[in-house]
Amino acid sequence: MNTFNKKSLYAAIAGLGALGAVGTAEAVHVNPDGLGQVLIYPYYTARTRTTGLFTGSQYNSLISVVNSTASAKALKVRFLESLDSREVLDFNLYLSAHDVWTTGVVPTSAGAGIVTADVSCVTPAIAKPGSPPTPFLNYQYSGSNADGADTSLDRTREGYVEIIEMANIVDNTATWSAVTHSKGSGGVPTCVGIAAGGTDYTTGNGGLFGSLTIINVLATAETGTDPVALENWETLGSIWSATTSITPNLGSGNVLTSETFKAGAVITSTWGANIDAVSASLMHDTIMNEYVLDSGTSSGTDWVVTYPTKRFYVIGGAPGNGFPPFQHNFDGKSCDTVGIAFWDREERTPAAPPGGFSPPPPGNPPSSLCYEANIVTFNQTNVFASPVSANISTPYQNGWALLDLTARTSVALPYHQMVAGANTYNGLPVIGFATATFYNGTLPPVAPSTSPTQSAYGGSYKHKATNN
After folding, report:
1. Is the dihedral of CA 168, 170, 173, 179 positive or negative?
2. Which among 116, 120, 123, 128 has a CA at the least distance from the CA of 181?
3. CA nearest 38: which of 232, 290, 175?
4. Residue 4 has what pLDDT?
5. How far is residue 67's CA from residue 289's CA, in Å, rounded to a whole number?
6. What pTM was estimated for this model as a whole?
7. How do the domains of the chain map onto residue ranges?
8. What values do phi and psi take at 24, rounded to 5?
């Protein structure tokens, strides 16, 4: 079996000619330029720090989405909690041409919710600043929907976000007039007369981009990253859905072909379902990034490792094997074995293979990431205060690490792998980033100020990855 069916990259891009144009025009893929029909934000958090520096300080997560096109759009916005990707809130968002929408995920007394100062049309409406947040809900993982994990609203405090283009809005229709800012009083859209489906909607043309900012005001720390953009996900027409429906989701597109790149080659495969094409486009066998643990700046590092398609391959509350590429069904957790390696900045690595996540569970099973939006922390710094983080213990203050997503306890089991014809994709569909924070204490006052300045800051860095 060939690992990949390779096309020459040069043939694929030459003059946007026959071979290359066909691949890009007919296949769902991650757009490296950040524009697409689907945006996946790897993480949100409204957690509160419980130990160490700035104990009691709360995180907020700020989300933006930008319509870069001259067409008005109907979008589905979906928030999913981190353990099993159970939906905690969704709604329809309508953007006029060149519009921007923003929201903030904030803590509530029991869980999390959102607020927005934006005037773009949202159905149903979202709370404005000064009002109680629109709360996240636990309906999808409590009661008859319980999946073996926590059923409280606290579970809504961290997760990730999908924004899916359902349709372009046809110019000069009633819906277009309702959502277009220039048609409203003072530039505010009326949001009256939005059609429930029908001829007001047509195939979306992408062009969405956005940003994620995670901020902790009391800790004077802020960091941010971009969402992953999927392009060419739906091509046949409008997939508008009412606010009472939890569709469309990541598997609702019509495109069954995926396109990825490996070693200078374009790799295309055809699948039986759109979600498999999406998963293949996100597939990596390793992810890599840096860690910073300087004692002089009280530094800490967390990695976000999110599997945005995992929920389509595991069954909540049902013990047993999941469907490839994932290893186990969700029964309170759904663990996928990973390999761990790390180095310092001078190429040193432990003489013996690094141990697994610490502290190890009873019985010392292989190292695993067990959720859908995972936090990996280093030397227990737990920057994002996740109660379910996995820890890597390292003797080095600074360096880089690698997670091997092909690790398996038995070569006979087909997990951590997807096969389409002669093409084998190894690893898992994964996105994420690393965040490092630094704290220099208080700096002396700078005239004309007479007050010292608290010095805390941070940065985020997209994971690097390989395909095999």
Report:
1. positive
2. 120
3. 232
4. 42
5. 31
6. 0.92
7. 34-255, 284-468
8. -70, -35
